[in-house]
Specification:
The protein is α/β, with parallel strands linked by helices. It has 21 helices and 17 strands. Helix 4 links the parallel strand 3 and strand 4. It starts with 10 loop residues before the first strand and ends with a strand. It comes from Lithohypha guttulata.
């Protein structure tokens, strides 16, 4: 056995010998294709074959994996590992105990351990496991004896407590029904602060694929692009922009947006379609109001952002939203979720759960009732789409956005007389805007359409991008209110559209620092 290699757990392939998954393919040929596609580690698992067959197959597999410099681990069977000189083993909680395995195998053997709970994970780390296989992520047809389905929340809890990602800890891969469609959200939603998965383990997503090489290569590309999608501000050593820097950057970002024609794809409600499209145009974006899920993949590749606004959701639009978020996640372009009326009915609460399960979001935006509904702990009972009276103070609202931002790994924007925005690290209160925004329908929805195109345009720091979009919107609203033509909500609307456009033209001559009522909160 060579020295223990630096483990690259990015794409971890677990083999399967059953006819439902492997069909009549040869496992060595499938693994070879998968290695060509980029799998970084392979585990040979066959719970039923005789020892002789296991050793023969493991030996053949080892010849393949060595060719690609990929470590081969054997599931459960230390004897097979020793017999073929594989790089290590993976053991479950009911298999050979970790310390026994350590005694039996050579010192450089890789030993991975399955963990379904914080306790199991802590014990495995204490015992010197080289990595953890965390799961079961989702119910999986390849493993009938699934002890516990823990989902992304359970994985996040384990990662948070085990301090993965620090140099004192071990790598972690998630396992259980992970495939190309859900891999990005699995990585994104499992992350707890700096603690994140080192990769994912898959079985049928590669073994049962028509083309295992292509399946592996697509998975690896999605895994790597998701890793890059993490906020720059949370990367160690990168100092997030704050205060002065934001004021300095905002006019330039707004000016760039005004002449960008960046795509703002809206899967929005039937009430605000026209208003939101006009708001987008006035800010310099190019709107498309399309609820056709079938065209989402093409639109997702155009470099813009997507709004999913549940205002007039139906069963049909729900499937369009799901197609939309999947397409934009896959393309790596931003998605904003606006859970309109989320706190009003049980149907909407269920829709939120479905959408959070389907993909991941760069921004979750809503009024207090809606943000409460996403948190699963409503602070106000919504009467329809409006928020309802609030009993939370400023500090509680700031806490709400911050904790949801940390939980969902995204920006959270809670609108109202004062808006609260957080990326889980930085939180600001923005008190610009006009009272008339609260008296017209769709002002929150249209703000979402603007924020998403700012995110698509300014990729360096989503938090700064969102602030630029909010200020463009709210400073224009202030100017519209001051315009003599504005006598109430009706005449406010055309004045507002005008000012969105005009502010874009003269932003460079404005002192944003003076105009913005923006307070940084701890
Ligand atoms: N009284 C107010 N003063 C200043 N700005 C306001 C006021 N009320 C709302 N706004 C602004 O209006 C925008 C929309 O916020 P609001 O909370 O009303 O959204 P919403 O309830 O989701 O709206 P809708 O469902 O009609 O789209 C935000 O930019 C917010 O700051
Ligand atoms: C009034 C209304 N009803 C469903 S969506 C919507 C627009 C504001 O949210």
């Amino acid at each position: 056995m060579p020295n223990k290699p630096d483990l690259d757990l990015s794409l971890y392939l677990v083999t399967d010998a059953t006819s439902e998954i492997l069909g009549d393919n040869d496992v060595c040929q499938v693994v070879e294709k998968a290695c060509k596609g980029g799998v970084t580690i392979v585990q040979y698992r066959d719970k039923h074959a005789d020892t002789g067959v296991l050793i023969k197959t493991a030996s053949e597999l080892h010849t393949v994996t060595q060719k690609y410099n990929v470590p081969l681990l054997i599931n459960d069977r230390l004897d097979v590992c020793l017999a073929v000189g594989a790089e290590g083993v993976h053991i479950g909680q009911d298999d050979t105990p970790l310390e026994a395995a350590r005694r039996i195998l050579p010192p450089n053997a890789i030993i991975g351990v399955t963990a379904s709970s914080v306790q199991e994970a802590e014990a495995a780390i204490q015992g010197g496991a080289d990595y953890l296989g965390i799961g079961t992520m989702f119910a999986t047809p390849t493993k009938k004896d699934t002890k516990s389905i823990i989902g992304t929340r359970g994985t996040q809890e384990i990662l948070a407590r085990c301090m993965t990602g620090t140099k004192h800890s071990v790598g972690c891969v998630a396992i259980g029904s992970i495939n190309a469609a859900n891999v990005q959200r699995v990585i994104h939603q499992s992350t707890a602060d700096e603690n994140r998965l080192s990769g994912v383990a898959v079985v049928s997503a590669i073994i049962a694929a028509a083309d295992p090489q292509e399946a592996a290569s697509e998975l690896l590309q999605r895994i790597r692009s998701t890793a890059e999608k993490f906020y720059i501000s949370t990367r160690p050593g990168v100092h997030p922009a704050s205060g002065e820097v934001i004021f300095q950057q905002t006019p330039g970002i707004i000016e760039k947006h005004v002449s960008s024609s960046i795509l703002s794809h809206n899967m929005t409600n039937t009430v605000v379609q026209n208003f939101a499209a006009n708001v987008c145009l006035a800010t310099g974006a190019s709107p498309i109001m399309s609820l056709n899920g079938a065209e989402a993949p093409d639109l997702a590749r155009l470099g813009g952002g997507l709004v999913i606004n549940m205002g007039t959701a139906t069963a049909d639009t729900m499937s369009a939203y799901q197609a939309g978020v999947k397409a934009y996640n896959a393309a790596g372009n931003p998605v904003l979720l606006d859970p309109v009326g989320g706190g009003a009915t049980s149907v909407r609460r269920e829709a939120i759960r479905t959408l959070l399960r389907t993909g991941f979001y760069d921004v979750i935006k809503g009024n207090e009732g809606e943000i409460g509904a996403v948190m699963g702990a409503s602070t106000v009972q919504q009467r329809g789409v409006d928020s309802g009276p609030s009993s939370s103070n400023a500090q509680q609202k700031a806490e709400m956005v911050k904790s949801l931002a940390r939980r969902e790994r995204c920006l959270v924007l809670m609108t109202g007389v004062t808006d609260y925005l957080s990326d889980g690290r930085r939180t600001v209160a923005i008190s610009n805007g006009s009272k008339w925004l609260g008296k017209i329908t769709g002002s929150g929805c249209a703000l979402g359409s603007v924020v998403v195109s700012y995110l698509a345009l300014h990729r360096a720091d989503k938090f700064v991008a969102a602030i630029a979009g909010i200020l463009h919107y709210e400073l224009a609203a202030e100017r519209a209110e001051q315009n003599p033509s504005c006598r109430g909500p009706g005449s406010f609307i055309p004045a507002f559209i005008d000012e969105l456009y005009l502010l874009g033209q003269d932003i460079k001559s404005q002192d944003v620092r003076k105009l913005a009522r923006l307070e940084f909160l701890e």
